[in-house]
Amino acid sequence: RKEVEQDPGPFNVPEGATVAFNCTYSNSASQSFFWYRQDCRKEPKLLMSVYSSGNEDGRFTAQLNRASQYISLLIRDSKLSDSATYLCAVNDAGGFKTIFGAGTRLFVKA
Amino acid sequence: GAVVSQHPSRVICKSGTSVKIECRSLDFQATTMFWYRQFPKQSLMLMATSNEGSKATYEQGVEKDKFLINHASLTLSTLTVTSAHPEDSSFYICSARVRATEAFFGQGTRLTVV
Lengths: 110, 114
Description:
The structure holds 2 protein chains of 2 kinds.
Chain A: E1 4-6, E2 11-14, E3 19-25, E4 32-38, E5 45-50, E6 55-57, E7 60-65, E8 70-75, E9 84-91, E10 98-100, E11 104-109
Parallel strand pairs in A: 2-11
Antiparallel strand pairs in A: 1-3, 3-8, 4-5, 4-9, 6-7, 7-8, 9-10, 9-11
Chain B: E1 4-7, E2 10-13, E3 19-25, E4 32-38, E5 45-51, E6 57-58, E7 67-73, E8 76-81, E9 90-97, E10 104-105, E11 109-113
Parallel strand pairs in B: 2-11
Antiparallel strand pairs in B: 1-3, 3-8, 4-5, 4-9, 5-6, 7-8, 9-10, 9-11
């Protein structure tokens, strides 16, 4: 089993739609969780950290469910510019390394 | 966010030669730097983790004699691909972080071995 798993998609949604991504992790002792965005042929950029209480940044909401070992990202009112690959990332129990999921591709169409 | 600079952004080299890639944290001291490789349409694969002043920890299946990592200071790590072959052609990305916080990425290096 992979340490961090994501549905690869792609998700094809119209502008204005709400879309949700999930990501599961295998190590229950993992400490920190993040969502990154990666555009084609570019490096990943941090989108947001994920906190136990859940957090929101504009149209983006991230949640953590430790009991079920998954994190989620909700994007409301999708824009064309949201089209990208979304990667979840998990710092391992000792905080020594960051493991990434394979990414979920999102295409927002007009 | 913090700035991580990676150089060069693109390199083409002949088979059998070595290529060095630099990763610098410009406005913070990185306790840990990571090196990843990404093939087209595939996920980031962690190659190794390096801490300043100590030997890098390589992931299973990554040849440490082929991918030499040096982390001489808190702001600089280098990856040298030795005796490069066409199958080493890939997108190499470094990231840096302070303790167990989020990681910030360099711009990546697109290596083509001909």
